[in-house]
Design brief:
Blueprint lengths: L6 E7 L12 H5 L2 H11 E4 L4 E5 L8 E7 L20 H21 L6 E8 L19 E8 H6 L8 H4 L3 H16 L8 E4 L17 E4 L9 H27 L11 H9 L2 H16 L1 H6 L6 E7 L5 E7 L12 E7 L1 H24 L4 E2 L15
Parallel strand pairs: 1-11
Antiparallel strand pairs: 2-3, 2-12, 3-4, 4-6, 5-6, 5-9, 7-8, 8-10, 9-10
Helix pairs in contact: 6-9, 7-8, 7-9
């Protein structure tokens, strides 16, 4: 019988075909316009007129299926701290395109991998606030709004070694423990105000994956109607509503931590709920006090705090085949996979990657053709797929 525990998966990749200049931190280089231009030339699959870029992950999490869509503003917004990192920073038109691209990609994954007993299918966004220094470990390699799409074989997960229980990404350096131990009830109660038709709240542990026992203690919603509901604009409105609720919660908490500030900003989406469920909650104030005292006493902890909203929002298929939405704070920079209890150890192994590359790329090119057919961008040529067909690297 398989033990339920977080897993550490080893994923091979090619050596990056470029050198990071001396004297610059990797994350600083990865966020440079130069690198983003190189990413497009080497791994770009498709670009929309708005600037959304579908690309092959050079250092991926899963070589079964792995791709990402970013809002590539790197050539027009040169300040990496000034680029959009959340959906609420997109225009209505940009948001519709991003949602449609997400829908088409997720539907493709569900079609290719229909059995929830065999494959874990999911996608997720993560954001990073603008006050986080680019050269700090844990900063996403590309600081722009993105959605990461992955599929893992459950047999591979089950055969993988258990991840360390104190892995900083799984524990969120203690921040996640604070949410679970002191804020879980308040957090869940705060989200009860959402006016939802397509998303149905479920107990936070009901959507746990049997193999990893994750996610843990987070607000979760089942998508009523499953994949068919992704075709409805109402679902995407509610998906955004979950994010907006999270942003209100996060800002209220860290204003209290930072300056014991209980004012409700005019921009709040749920001002009444902030007052009723949060500011009148003793648990909420207790957690804020604990954080505040730790920030004052521990400089290392203080340096890890993200004062502006940083989140991870996932859409995944659970063991029962249901589509589930969940959302978490993002305090350390842990990957989307770790919210589902999967730690990925990526290693350079050209031969091992070559054995999986053609199948991976055939799927990504097939997905690209579907996006083009739905008027969601124009194809890009690279040395590995110059004319829409994969050419193995020699």
């Amino acid at each position: 019988m398989t033990t339920s525990a977080p897993r550490e998966v080893t994923t091979p990749h090619r050596k990056l075909p470029l050198e990071i200049p001396k004297g610059i931190a990797p994350t600083e280089f990865f966020n440079s316009p130069c690198n983003l231009r190189h990413l497009t030339r080497e791994n770009g699959l498709l670009r929309t007129p708005e600037g959304f870029l579908l690309y092959r992950k050079a250092i991926g999490h899963s070589n079964l299926f792995d791709t990402s869509i970013i809002f590539d503003t790197s050539q027009k917004v040169l300040d990496p701290m000034g680029r959009p990192v959340r959906r609420d920073q997109l225009s209505r038109e940009e948001n519709i395109v991003f949602s449609r691209m997400t829908k088409v990609t997720l539907n493709y994954m569900l079609e290719k991998y229909p059995d929830p007993d065999q494959h874990l299918v999911f996608c997720g966004e993560a954001s990073l606030d603008a006050t986080w220094p680019l050269n700090k470990p844990g900063v996403p390699s590309i600081r722009m709004i993105h959605n990461h799409f992955m599929v893992f074989e459950k047999s591979v997960l089950a055969a993988s070694p258990h991840a360390s229980e104190d892995n900083p990404n799984l524990t969120d350096s203690g921040h996640n423990g604070l949410f679970l131990q002191y804020l879980s009830d308040v957090y869940l109660r705060f989200f009860e105000v959402l006016d939802l038709e397509v998303l149905r709240p479920i107990p936070p542990d009901e959507g746990r994956l049997a193999i990893t026992s994750y996610p843990q203690g987070l607000p979760s919603w089942e998508i009523l109607g499953g994949a068919a509901s992704l075709e409805k604009g109402q679902f995407w409105k509610e998906y955004d509503l979950v994010l907006k609720g999270f942003l209100d919660f996060y800002r209220a908490l860290f204003r209290l931590v930072a300056a014991e500030d209980t004012t409700i900003p005019a921009s709040a989406i749920f001002p009444d709920q902030i007052e009723d469920a949060l500011l009148f909650s003793d648990q909420f104030h207790q957690a804020a006090r604990m954080l505040r005292l730790q920030v004052i006493e521990d400089p290392m902890f203080a340096n890890e705090i993200r004062w502006q909203p940083a989140y991870k929002q996932l859409l995944y298929r659970d063991d029962k085949g249901r589509l589930i939405v969940t959302i978490s704070q993002n305090s350390v920079g842990n990957a989307i996979t770790e919210l589902l209890g999967i730690v990925v150890r990526r290693v350079v192994d050209e031969k091992a990657y070559a054995r999986t590359e053609q199948r991976l790329m055939e799927q990504l090119l097939e997905l690209r053709a579907r996006l083009v057919r739905y008027n969601l961008g124009a194809p890009l040529a690279t040395p590995s797929w110059p004319h829409g067909r994969f050419v193995p690297t020699t």
